[in-house]
Amino acid sequence: MNPSVIPVTLLFADGVSHRLQVPCGGKLVEAATAAGLNLLTDCSNGQCGTCTAQLVSGAVEMEDYDPAVLPDEDRASGTVLPCVCRVHSPCAIELPYDASEAMSEEPAPIEAAVTAVEQVATEVVRLEVQVPEAVAFEPGQYVRIQPAGADFHRSYSMANVPGTDRLQFFVRVVEGGAFSTWLAGARPGDKVALSTPHGTFFLRDEDRPRLFVAGGTGVAPFLSMMRSMADRPPAQRTTVVIGARTPGHLFAMDELRSLGERLAGVDLQVVVEQDARDGCHQGYPTDLIPRLGLDPATRVYLCGPPPMVEAGRKAAEAAGLRRADVLCERFA
Ligand SMILES: Cc1cc2nc3c(=O)[nH]c(=O)nc-3n(C[C@H](O)[C@H](O)[C@H](O)COP(=O)(O)OP(=O)(O)OC[C@H]3O[C@@H](n4cnc5c(N)ncnc54)[C@H](O)[C@@H]3O)c2cc1C
Ligand code: FES
Questions:
Q1: Residue 106 burial (10 A CB sphere; 0-12, 13-18, 19+)
Q2: How, if at all, do strands 142-147 and 154-157 pair?
Q3: Is the shortest distance between the CB of 151 and ligand 1 below 6 Å?
């Protein structure tokens, strides 16, 4: 055996495994790409958690990452961020998606045109784009959007239901952000390129109670999920907690309230950090988790800023829910 090449076994969710030969000290994702496997990544620098995987044997070294995305206790129990992993000794890593997703070539981008840009709340813009034909995705997934001529792309979750040629996104505008700056000048007709949909944060079709917790524009994937649930009403209770900085930061509330009334078993709660009124709670959305009396079989979906997602995970565990039942999407 060549000691400067280290064997790494990748175990995919569909049971398929791949053995990589990684140069000692080399980057896991680069070695996988060289072997024809595109591991799921987004930020590629340990800030978003999109690549989260589980080390099942051996060890890896991790470069800098955001501890809100991978807390120390998770790291101690073997959770890793492949995008920042370097390999020095043999190991095996479990990935939460099928091998076919990693093996397929990244398809050509989808050419889309902006059809609407509209401020819908404080610091929140609704972006709508038209694609040549309906894009298939699971409610909760996201695409990467690259404005024409730009050298960057950012990820945004679809808020619409699958099966239409208009995709809708809700973008939090951040001062000095590259996409935010582009969005400020975007007009109908402007061209963007979209990746195919990605992500493991999607609505599971299962007969158990659900808890959705959203912070800020983290509402977007839940809009897609709830709009889809209108076609397949859930048999069990769904609790939806929407959090925002102030009432002025809330958006799509009329539709959420109407979905909450139309869908049997949906309980909608709204929490704002400041100026609570009209039946809103004051505080953080995750403050409500201990008070909900959750069934231990509940599937939890958390989406929003990384610190909110982390607080939600801790609160769900403290409420007796299993870590494996908590799905997270971090808008980093
Ligand atoms: C899977 C996924 C799905 C997502 N879905 C959504 C969604 O539906 N809606 C949504 O609003 N967001 C979503 N996000 C977040 C989104 O992708 C972007 O990260 C976010 O919109 C910021 O992009 P930006 O280009 O405007 O800001 P960026 O350019 O990424 O900048 C972010 C911040 O860093 C600061 N900054 C940038 N460069 C520098 C520098 N050189 N020095 C100091 N500070 C700097 C900026 O001022 C800004 O405050 C998602 C993220 C992920 C990973
Ligand atoms: S892709 Fe690994 S943390 Fe973002």
A1: exposed
A2: antiparallel
A3: no
* pLDDT > 70 fraction of the chain, expressed in percent and rounded: 99
How many Å apart are CA 331 and CA 78, to the nearest integer? 23
Mutation to probe ligand 2, out of 38, 51, 142 (largest number of atoms < 8 A from CB): 51
Contact 287, 279 (CB under 8 A): no
Distance of alpha carbon 157 from alpha carbon 331, whole angstroms: 9
Mean pLDDT over each residue of the chain, to the nearest integer: 94
- Ligand 1 atom nearest residue 179's Cα: 25
Helix, strand counts (H, E) of the chain:
7, 20
Homologous superfamily of domain range 5-103: Beta-grasp domain (3.10.20.30)
Q: What whole-number distance in Å separates Cα of residue 245 and Cα of residue 168? A: 22
Whether 1 shows a pLDDT value over 70: the answer reads: no
Taking only the tens place, the pLDDT of each residue in 211-238 is 999 999 999 999 999 999 987 777 789 9
Residue 51 beta carbon below 6 angstroms from any ligand 2 atom? yes
Smallest CA-to-CA distance from 36 within 2, 60, 54, 10 is with: 10
CA–centroid distance, 186 to ligand 2, in Å, is 28
The response to whether residue 202 sits with its C-beta less than 6 Å from ligand 1 reads no
Pocket flag, ligand 1, residue 220 (CB < 6 Å)? yes
Amino acid at 168: Q
CATH of 210-330, one of 3.90.245.10, 3.40.50.10490, 3.40.50.1860, 3.40.50.80: 3.40.50.80
What is the radius of gyration, based on Cα positions, of the chain?
20
Task: Write down the pTM of the prediction.
Answer: 0.89
Query: What is the dotted CATH code of the domain comprising 110-194?
Result: 2.40.30.10
Q: For the chain, which residues make up each domain, given as ranges?
A: 5-103, 110-194, 210-330
3-state SS of 179-224?
A: HHHHHHCCCCCCEEEECCCECCCCCCCCCCCEEEEEEHHHHHHHHH
